[in-house]
Amino acid sequence: MRSEDNEKHETSGTEKQQNGCSDVIASSVEMHDASTEHRDIAEGKNEAEHWNKPFTNVGRLGFAFLSFIIAGMNDGAVGLEEYYNLSYTTVSLVFLTPFVGYSLAAFTNATIHMKLGQRGIAFIAPICHIITYAVLAIHPPWPVLIIINIFSGFGNGACDACFCAWVGVMRKANTIQGFMHACYSVGALLAPMIATSFVVSAKLPWYTFYYVMVGLSVIEWVGLLTTFWHRTGAVHRMNHQDESEKGGVGLREALKSKVTWLCAAFFFAYMGAEVGIGGWVVTFMLRVRNASRYASGVSGTAFWAGMTVGRAGLGFVTERFGERLCITVYLAFAVTFQLLFWLVPNFVVSAVSVAFLGVFLGPLFPGAVMVTAKLLPQRIHVSAIGFAMAIGGTGGTIFPFIIGAIASHAGVGVLQPIILALIALVTIIWLNFPHVNEEERLLLKIGRLIKAVSTIPTKQESV
Length: 463
Fold this sequence. Notes:
single chain; mainly alpha; globular; transmembrane transporter activity
């Protein structure tokens, strides 16, 4: 009996040791990921990341760009009005419901980062895209279509905050932000072209477009999850130790900042103007300028092409001369071309004006992200930018809905004064942004460097 008891005791002791070893191994793996990624980022010098340093950033940026292309294709896809036999007001609901998803993303983004890191966003956001487009591909009843867009709103809001905050502290961030947001415009440019080729040329139903979206979203999911696999919650907490020590995730602190609210108001008005034009310019040209269906489609393409050129090309200019001067100049040109678009009742003038309007509206969004990142401490970037983008996404859903609702009674010509008012509001908000104090930024960087050096373990401790 005694030998059996001894054997049981030894067995239970062995099991406890094995369980303890498993916990240690799991913890060690997480810490290994964190320490490896931390070294990968900083290389012991606390240097800002580059687009190609560490080298894995090349793949990460590539799939982040794909996420923005998908978001643009989501917003640029149209053609529901005739299939569902809907009024302007009813079809405008498709712009409104993503607001719920954006709002959820605003209040959960920081928590996801603290618990799961960028890996969590890389897993959750593409899944939201896949769910949305898989349901749309089976052309459900209209109420289901409206509700399912909440998922795409959440996915887009999560990606926006995550990748803009990440890129915002990179070297040459203005240029990279410009290219990343240009990808959104590329997506919005491609969507109607692909959808039109399916429906008109191939005589396929409109929902076949979403088969392509499902495929792209699966590629996005695999790519983001693979490249961001080591960006765990442990990595994020290590790089944001102040937040972890305070027990918060930064949203409360971010909401106390005037800059966060200014950025949110800027995005709210800006995205209302951008998505409002992109969503209704074709209908405006068709009904008000009496253009052909083909010519109207070309004008919509011209707007998104202008956005792409402005974001990719003017990012270099903004990097060289600074956001304060450049965005002020871009806004002045945007107001000028919007007035031409509205007041000259000629299709050619309108088409050219809306293209240049896209060029000068394009770099405003990435430029505002950069100013916000410079004005706020890095520990609240995800929270502040995520909240601001969620509010911006709200503007991008509410104002197209308002335009559609008013157009049902007063005609689609109401697009013009609403867009002009929104651009004017963006200008007023921009002029109220605080100036970036270069001396304070330098002191802040020195403080971060000293803190980072003090937290690097010595060789003896690591051994």
